[in-house]
Amino acid sequence: MIRVAIIGAGMAGLACARRLAQAGVQPVLFDKGRAAGGRVSTRRSDGLQFDHGAQYVTAQGPGFAAVLRELAATGDAAAWLEGSGRARVVGTPDMATLGKAMASGLDVRQGFHVSAIRPADGGWQVLAGDAGLRAARVVITVPAPQVAGLLGAEHPWAARLGAVRMDPCLTLMAGIAAPAPFVTRAAPDDALAWIAQDSAKPGRPTAEVVTWVAQAGPTFSAAHVDDEPAALVARMLPMLCERLGVTSDRVRHATAHRWRYAQVAAPLGVPFLRDAGGSLYLGGDWCLGRRVEDAWTSGTAMADDLLSHALLAQLR
Description:
Number of domains: 2
CATH architecture of the largest domain: 3-Layer(bba) Sandwich
Order of helices and strands: EHEEEHEEHEEEEHHEEEEHHEEEHH
CATH class of the largest domain: Alpha Beta
Mean pLDDT: 95
Helix content: 25-40%
């Protein structure tokens, strides 16, 4: 029997696990991906690297600010001075490092695709394919639209989450052999709402080409989220070249990624949900907003609530 099982090793799941571990509780995190961090991630291809999810993190509250200072002190994060004057922080040598550092010392089991969570003998049955495990308490941190698939469409939370909206985001990654006209370009109403010179971030490896990440706005992303990556490259790369003022013959690499649940457009409005028995929790960035800090806040709040409503002896 696992005392606390956390579904999802993104920022909310990691924050929850870290707070529990600090109190002497050893949770087990299950994640379908290959690395911890969720959308705080990095893609490598053809010898190049791209932060194709969250571009940077910022802190508004003292708690998350302390986490970022700790990561900076260990060399896992650094300030990105890209000209906006804002305090933006990135992982070094890539954004995925933030998740790796936060997962250090935790029991994270990757490649574990949870298909259902059902009540069982005073606890919970966590199903993954033909396998299953028992857990006394479960913390779910998957995107809101995926909750009904885990708990069942008849679960009361499924209806409550109907008001939550998460927009998709399409990301283009390109290596271009041409001088960079800018470091970042934010244009919320443009089809390419964000363009960043990824290789300009601190700690990035030197390369013969400039690496760029371009992320589409919500309207374009919603219209083309079902397109295959090759089709997305065909649509987005000419737009990127036009905005950079370069010709297509300067492109050395291009690929695309589809984030189906990327941007929180309508949050739940509370940090988390908890069942009456205090054994099932549900949270994530979608509870509070679109910032990485919102995911951390939700995960930390779930851990604090769990610790305050359960005897530590039962959790250890």
